[in-house]
Design goal:
Chain A: This is Tripartite tricarboxylate transporter TctB family protein. Chain A: Pfam families: TctB (PF07331). Chain A: InterPro entries: DUF1468. The structure holds two protein chains of two kinds. Chain A is mainly alpha-helical. Helix content of chain A is about 70%, strand content about 0%. The termini of chain A are far apart. Chain B has one domain. Chain B has 21 helices and three strands. The chains are: A mainly alpha, B mainly alpha. At the A-B interface, helix 1, strand 1, helix 2, helix 3 and helix 4 of A face helix 5, helix 8, strand 2, helix 10 and helix 13 of B.
Chain lengths: ~180, ~500
Amino acid sequence: MIAKTLQDMFKRYRRPGDVVFAVLFLAFAVFLLSQLGDQTKVVKRTKWFAQPGLWPTIAIWCMVVFGFLHWLSSALSDRISGRWTEVGFWVRSFEYVAYFLIYVLVVPQLGYLPSTMLFAVFLTLRVGFRGANAIGIAAFFGFVVTIVFRGFLQVKIPAGAVYEYLPDSVRAFALTYL
Amino acid sequence: METLLSGISILLQWQVIVALLIGSIGGVIIGALPGVGAAVAIAILLPATFAFEPIVGLTLLLGIYGSSMYGGAIPAILINTPGTAVNALTTYDGYPMTKRGQGHRALSLAYSASFFGGVFAIICLMVLSPVLALVAPHFGSREIFLAALLGIILVVLAHRGQIFAAGMLAAFGIFLNSVGLEPVKYTRRFTFDQSWLASGIDLIVVVLGLFAISQAFLLLLEKNHAPGDTHVSGNIFAGLKELLGVKRVATVSSSIGVFMGMVPGTGEFTSQFLSYTYAQKTSKNPEKFGDGSPEGLVASEAANNAVPGAAMIPLLALGIPGEALTAMMLSVFYVHNVIPGPQLFENQMDFVLALYMALILLNVIVLVFLLFSTNLLLKIIQIPTRFLGVMILILAFVGVYSLRNSITDCAIAAGFGVFGLILKRLDLPIVPIILGMVLGGIMETKLRSAMARVKTPLDFIDRPIAAILFGLIVLILILHCRTLYFEFKNKLRPEPTMQPVDSDNPNQQG
């Protein structure tokens, strides 16, 4: 019993979508290999170990060889159902990539504090928490993160452009800490 | 003596003490939250620590690293959900004990074993220091190159069942490190005439994408789950005494943890596996393993907690990280121009001693904290996983954007987030990419400087340490090929009377 469960822990089982990833990775590696001549230069009067192209060449050839073997082992194994459902799951992550990048673009305009609180509340609503408690906690979390990182730890995040329009009494504070 | 006092004075700075407290207690909480883990937390906090003194930043990160596995044992034992991946084996014996109403006993044993393993590793580290200080100066460019090459080979071979995938991902890491302006001849490599690629791909951006953002995406997209409400009652101090009854298992498991922690690429999983197997084979009650055996629990927890201390040995002595978390810590050293390696032991022994003492203190803080606040932690960990995803994504932004306020960095990190999500969904390893990036850079620099003084190939291994390392590489490759040959031979041999172990999983890649 234990021997079996321990084996379960330390061995890998193929998952749906394995072969799709293997094909994509191999295609990427082959593309890089095709670009090797264009994207690296051979420097004259320089020995092989100091050539700028040495390590990209080693790395890409290893990617191609191991990538091919990985694809082969996936392709020769039995097909597991749910391949395209899995690929759909990967594609769905782009929705959150878009939200994340919008947040990144908004921060320098709206300021770190308001953007973070809004982003936290938006994501909380998006993932299905609709209660006032959840929204309140999300907003509070956004507030705490801002205070800790920008106010206390002084990490390098630019002040929001809209802070310039704040009254004099709070502008300096907002520009420094929020 | 003077060095020791200097080390103590470094440790007694208020910033170091605060970092130690936040790191160790924060690490326990992070470890106890299923779905977060030390790697995510360290990746997020890494850029923030660049503003601190190196000892403060490292103490904070080490605190999280060393204490997360303590915390991970709590949900593993009480709700059968490991807080961190390395606590998976703890569920085997911890949860059955909880079902029998012995949750407090299991927790107590886990804390004691973790403390024993953690402190044992640090003592080994301290004892080995003089040896390291003696040996480390003999590591020149060719020895460090060979040690890094050995690290890459071990990382790939350690991923049994997915060696091809580990190999291609390690190579991808080496490739990523080579993108951008080459530092000696100043030629562009794989920049595709894009200015944003000229400065290369930052390790921290990749780490944040692969560990933190990918985890956030995963938690946001997968079904929501919240650990159930639970409570532990009973004497939680009893395990401290009970550990004495299984001191042999604790000592051997910790020793295995120390050895595996020092070997690049092996880490917690292998040490746990070996310790657990050892404990089961030498036990008077092997049938109880997997059904609430205190020995099994101790073997698992002592081994995994011995790894963080031991993993610092190759990092401090040679500047070679053995796994992803020490690779992240290496960047803290580099940012502050503190170069780990032989010179560190010669010139900054007080700094090294302060680190050792901080490691011991963190184990004491965590043990005391856990003995008194387990029930409080059980309340904290009831955060729904999707909300955890929201939290991680927001925190990941701080990590990436604060590096150099670059929107491009954020986009690259988000791209690696998707890549990391795919790898996690497919159960493919992320660590080879990170080690490929770090060790690839080390190999490139060291090969160039080593070869300048090499006339014939044999000159490369004409020094004793270089020869030993080369011999080890050859031996490991031969042993691996031999194992593969015998496995292949065994597969060909028909065994009609035995049920294959994996008969119900025909897709297993062995």
